[in-house]
Design a protein that fits this description.
By secondary structure, this protein is α+β, with helices and mostly antiparallel strands. Helix content is 36%, strand content 19%. Helix 9 (282-309) packs antiparallel against helix 10 and helix 25 (916-928) packs across helix 26. The longest helix has 28 residues, at 282-309. Bound molecules: 4'-deoxy-4'-aminopyridoxal-5'-phosphate (PMP).
């Protein structure tokens, strides 16, 4: 009687075997000795045997299991070893030549065998499994199933509690073990729903031998690198059985849910990977989620029951919470929805059973009238300057449109901008699964199909038909609830706002909005109401971001990289967030150029106004150029009295080099190693950051003389007092040039060391270097392109931190908030030296539009107190990052100040080994958590933190908490 066997087996405790007994067994039957360590197991007694040169696992199981079942496992191990690339343990024969020993031990019958140990570790301890591990588990499962499809053994026709064919019987039997009534009802209900979905599929499910426990506990990995794992093999064939093929993948997926952080879609990559190797039938894919639910219920009940039998088994106790977690995720979504998601992930659709239904019009009195379609999507022209954040904005826009035409409509399947969330790791529910109408006058509503009328708890009128339900919010019901209506019957009245939603699974109550990840699956269940409205109310499909990227790659020269392998398409920004086409907001911690934040209305207005008046070049006479030049000079230290206007940082630095050449009469430039100053021929020549140009060090022209990078954290000399040592490198170059009687042209550096993540230069460094360079007739250039203009919080210019004044200041990036704008600020005698080489002219440099924008940036910075914000929120930011040093061993140091910060990750705080790979992982994970962040530095191990200067404390908290969360995953 199967159930009786099942029940007896499900309550078997582990056989009692002491370490001494195990040692004796090993000596007597295998002539082996070694150190023993007990391994956790639910129903077997397992010991790891370390025999010096080799390691084994001694497995002792209950005599209740018949020998033929264990022989089947051994045969399967042999089969896989010869037919499949997956590594499995070999079975070690006892000295009597047997693979399996059936013995009496302490009065109990037990089976004993010895297996080879596969080196590596299980990843069950990892809360977050990297995506390639998830995919790897799906692939492994597929490979094993493919191979075992041809394997048969009489020992596999066995009764096993994990065999999903017995799940319902087992659940029913074990249910009373749950004492909490609600929990019990919850499991019973879930199991019943799963069974209902499974029943019609069972006949079509193929049977074969399966491992049935390909989970993170039984798959062994070795660490390939800091963030990558290599699959070493599969162990524990204790659940091997002949059952539905899909049972194997359902077990793997159920286990993965433990790592899913509440997201059922987490398992889709594993399913896709499985299907690619071992294609599944439609019915198997449809059975998958119900089987996962059943498995999760069995897991919970078995553990609860086992815990009751063995209250001291800590292994079982620890599992209970995690199994409830799996059950919660498995029951968090409707089965029909998850089925749609699973089918979509492998590119399948359910077979259409009936022809598309024909509907009667919902609003026949408005047939043929124009419904104004209101664009509420991310690119809608109705949305400016963050107005989408005003509560009720969508309704207001619909109402406004209905005033003009009598009736207006939102669009079905539109990703609504008003639903975006900032500083949230979660995808926002932006996808509209409904249509909202706005009717200026009252109109009668008619039943589009036959059904029963009801009122829902949230005041919707609900028409339930045989294959479809319709919900209407804002309608007045003119019939009594419970009434049956025929298609075309009048059911009520609508006026003002009317929200309607169809659902092809009549008993479901879908949400009005879905997240982008769930949009496709929900759309399968909630068809567009276009057919009953009589007009096309669907939002146009979004452009395919991947296709667009392919077009970019096919036309835009490849050396111009993009962030991320599969970047989201970003077409809108607001303040310190960037918004993708599906309405997801990403925290922008990268855009040092957009100092004021994105989408600033003042910028748009300023550009539009000036463009409509005039845009020309600086050879014409207009007010803006004088006004802007004066304002820039006011920002510079005393003595600076001349401005050049160009269009970028590269141009500004290039011009600065030419000025140094012209003024000094020399050509030789000193520049700091590992820095970046631009892409033009001259600025590229002085740039030696190998992260930007791997050949940088070997390709310098003879006029460029790099000096040691004054990195006080990991440079040749450490600490804030290291200036004298670093200055020595400058001395050497200057001495050499003097010896060769070459005239020094100048020295250029960022006054705060940008490539290293914003490290302050050692105290006194620039004072000494400037003095020495000037003493030899050279000019000192401060490249303020990144660090200047108040970003550092407590200094407007970076050179202030060093207490020096340069001869030339170059600035670009933030001064135009993204508009191409660069300047060189200097003294008259230096500016005039260039005249010997002719005139200087830049066609767009200093144009009226550029000047107006440049001034507007300064106005906004003042009005919105952005410099103050950089100081106050920047200090808070640095303090919060600093706290991470105490919590996470990977955090080596925090550099910088204000909104120019660097978080340096190291594997070892003594050797400072850069944690490059971990930094890449961190940045990729942060993107999954809605944050844009990139690495910097020659080892790409520093987070380059330089957000718009309107960044808030809330955003800082979100960022630091997310970084901390991901760092914990790496530890
Ligand atoms: N100097 C520094 C310090 C920079 O960071 C950059 C740009 N990353 C430049 C100069 C060049 O500026 P642009 O890209 O505007 O030419």
């Amino acid at each position: 009687m199967p159930l009786a066997t099942l029940i007896r087996r499900s309550s078997l405790p582990c056989p009692e075997v002491s370490a001494e007994q195990a040692e004796q067994l090993l000596a007597q039957h295998y002539q082996l000795s070694g150190a023993l360590k007990e391994l956790g197991s639910q129903q077997d007694r397992n010991f790891l045997v370390d025999a010096g040169t080799q390691r084994y696992v001694l497995k002792i199981c209950h005599g209740d299991y018949s020998a033929v079942e264990l022989e089947a496992q051994h045969a399967a191990l042999g089969h896989l070893a010869s037919h499949c690339a997956v590594n499995v343990p070999g079975v070690v024969r006892a000295i009597n030549g047997e693979q399996l020993l059936s013995l009496e031990l302490g009065g109990n019958r037990v089976h004993v065998r010895l297996l080879e140990f596969i080196d590596g570790q299980a990843l069950s301890h990892l809360r977050h499994l990297p995506m390639d591990v998830v995919v790897g588990l799906g692939e492994l499962c597929a490979q094993v199933d493919r191979s075992l499809a041809a394997f048969e053994h009489p020992g596999l026709e066995r009764i096993l509690q994990w065999d999903p064919r017995h799940a319902q019987a087992l659940i029913k039997h074990l249910l009373p073990i749950i004492s909490n009534e609600d929990e019990r009802a919850c499991i019973a209900e879930a199991a019943e729903q799963a069974q209902r979905r499974l029943m019609p599929l069972i006949a079509a499910l193929p049977l074969q031998t399966v491992h049935l426990d390909i989970t993170e506990y039984n798959v062994v990995w070795s660490r390939e690198s800091a963030t990558q794992w290599r699959l070493q093999g599969l162990i524990d064939f204790g659940d091997l059985v002949t059952t539905w093929r899909i049972a194997d993948l359902s077990g793997t997926c159920a286990a993965l849910l433990h790592h899913a952080e509440g997201d059922p879609l987490y398992i889709l990559p594993a399913i896709r990977a499985y299907h690619a190797i071992n294609p599944l039938q439609l019915e198997e894919l449809q059975a998958l989620w119900p089987l996962i639910i059943a498995r999760s219920a069995v897991l919970v009940l078995s553990s609860e029951q086992q815990a009751a039998v063995e209250p001291d088994n800590t292994y079982i106790q620890a599992n209970i919470a995690s199994e409830w977690g799996i059950f919660d995720v498995a029951t968090s979504v409707p089965i029909a929805l998850m089925e749609a998601a699973i089918l979509a992930c492998v590119g399948m659709e359910p077979m259409a059973t009936e022809a598309a239904p024909v509907y009667q019009p919902l609003l026949p009195s408005l047939a043929g009238r124009e419904f104004r379609q209101v664009d509420l999507g991310v690119l809608s022209e109705h949305f400016v300057a963050g107005n989408w954040q005003h509560s009720g904005i969508d309704e207001q826009l619909l109402k406004q449109a209905s005033r003009e035409t009598g009736q207006a409509s939102s669009r079905f399947g539109e990703y609504r901008l008003s639903r975006t969330l900032i500083d949230s790791a979660k995808e926002p529910e932006t996808f509209a699964l409904h249509v909202e109408l706005h009717l200026a006058t009252q109109a009668p509503l008619h039943a589009p199909f036959a059904g029963t009328l009801r009122l829902t708890a949230d005041a919707a009128l609900l028409l339930v038909g045989e294959q479809m339900s319709l919900r209407l919010w804002g309608a007045t019901l003119e019939l009594t609830p419970g009434a049956s209506v025929a298609a075309g019957d009048m059911i009520g009245q609508g006026s003002g706002s009317l929200v309607l939603q169809l659902c092809a699974v009549p008993e479901l109550s879908p949400p009005l909005f879905a997240t982008p990840a769930w949009a496709g699956a929900w759309r399968q269940l909630c068809p567009s109401p276009a057919a009953l409205l009589g007009f096309d109310c669907d939002a146009p499909a979004l452009p395919d971001a991947a296709q667009l990227l392919a077009r970019r790659d096919a036309s835009f020269a490849r050396s111009q990289k993009h962030y991320y392998q599969a970047p989201p398409q970003i077409e809108r920004g607001w303040r310190n967030h960037l918004i993708d086409m599906q309405g997801r907001s990403y925290l922008d911690m990268l855009n040092n150029v957009a100092v004021l934040g994105h989408g600033h209305p003042r910028m748009a207005a300023e550009a539009a106004r000036q463009w409509s008046l005039l845009n020309t070049n600086s050879r014409f006479h207009y007010a803006a150029i004088a006004e802007f030049s004066e304002r820039l000079l006011k920002l510079a230290p005393e003595g600076f009295d001349r401005v050049f206007m160009v269009n970028s940082g590269s141009e500004a630095n290039d011009l600065a080099i030419r000025l140094a050449w012209a003024y000094s009469g020399g050509r030789d430039m000193l520049s700091v190693l590992e820095a970046y100053h631009g892409w033009s021929v001259a600025t590229d020549a002085i740039s030696t950051s190998i992260a930007d140009n791997p050949q940088a060090l070997s390709t310098r022209p003879e006029w460029v003389h790099p000096v040691t990078a004054p990195n006080t954290y990991r440079g040749e000399f450490r600490g804030v007092d290291s200036a004298p040592q670093y200055v020595r490198s400058v001395d050497q170059v200057l001495e050499q040039l003097a010896l060769q009687q070459r005239q020094v042209a100048g020295f250029i550096c960022e006054p705060v060391y940008g490539n290293a993540g914003g490290i302050s230069l050692p105290a006194g460094y620039l004072q000494q270097v400037y003095q020495k360079v000037r003493a030899q007739g050279g000019v000192c250039i401060a490249d303020e392109v990144q660090v200047g203009y108040g970003r550092l919080g407590h200094y407007f210019w970076g050179f202030e931190e060093q207490g020096v004044v340069p001869d030339i200041i170059t600035m670009a990036k933030g001064m135009g908030n993204g508009h191409p704008l660069g300047v060189v600020i200097t003294r008259r005698e230096i500016a005039e030296a260039l005249e010997a080489e002719g005139y200087f002219f830049s066609s767009a440099g200093g144009s009226p539009v550029s000047c107006r924008i440049g001034m507007a940036v300064l106005d906004v910075m003042e009005e919105e107190k952005l410099w103050e914000n950089a100081a106050v929120v920047g200090d808070y930011f640095k303090a919060r990052l600093q706290d991470l040093v105490d919590v996470h061993p990977l955090v080596g140091a925090v550099h910088g100040s204000g909104f120019y910060l660097g978080l340096e990750l190291v594997r070892n705080r003594q050797t400072l080994e850069p944690a490059t790979e971990e930094t890449t992982y961190l940045c990729d994970r942060l993107r999954e958590l809605s944050i844009f962040m990139q690495p910097t530095g020659d080892y790409l191990n520093i987070l380059k933190i330089k957000p718009p200067m309107c960044t808030t404390r809330q955003s800082v908290d979100f960022f630091v908490d997310s970084v901390s969360k991901v760092l914990a995953e790496l530890e």
